[in-house]
Design brief:
The protein has about 140 residues and is an alpha+beta fold. Helix content is about 30%, strand content about 40%. The strands form two sheets. It has a five-stranded mixed sheet with strand order 2-1-9-8-5, with no helix packed on it. Strands 4-3-6-7-10 form a five-stranded antiparallel sheet, with helices on one face. The mean pLDDT is about 90.
Length: about 140
């Protein structure tokens, strides 16, 4: 049995997850990041990504849309803008959000907020990526 640490995933609205984990993988400010037990202390920004949580009983994944990661001792906290489980994501809505964001980015209209459209596209892509990973892991 691998060493574990306490993991909490929290958003402004709720505590999404509180569990023990052997490893997590997510996208930090400087690229992909893996955290194991006894990791050095760390605080970093989180980019929109799929959070992979590895435990003895298997893997769990969440879609994150940014926030912060704090590692302190054997306590890891993910403070996310939003975090969603696969069953909370409506594939059709995510695909529609992706199309709308792509359409906004295609427009060369000064009324389009490009940063907001890019953020919407990233959120939709992360949600769809999570659903795709869950589909493949269930096969």
């Amino acid at each position: 049995m691998a060493a574990t640490f306490a993991l909490s995933v929290v958003t402004p609205e709720r505590e999404v997850l509180s569990t023990g984990a052997e490893m997590i993988i997510l996208r930090g400010a400087d690229g992909d990041l893996g955290v194991l037990a006894r990791h050095i202390p760390l605080v970093t920004a989180i980019k929109p990504s799929v959070l992979v949580i590895k435990r003895e009983e298997g893997e769990q994944r969440l879609a994150l849309t940014g926030g912060f990661l704090e590692v302190r001792g054997d306590v890891v906290t993910v403070l996310a803008r939003s975090a969603e489980r696969p069953e909370e994501i409506d594939r059709q809505r995510a695909e529609e959000a992706k199309r709308r964001a792509e359409d906004r980015l295609q427009q060369h209209d000064s009324d389009v907020d490009l940063e907001r459209a890019k953020g919407a596209l990233q959120r939709a892509l992360v949600r769809l990526q999570l659903l795709e990973q869950e589909t493949h892991s269930a096969v």
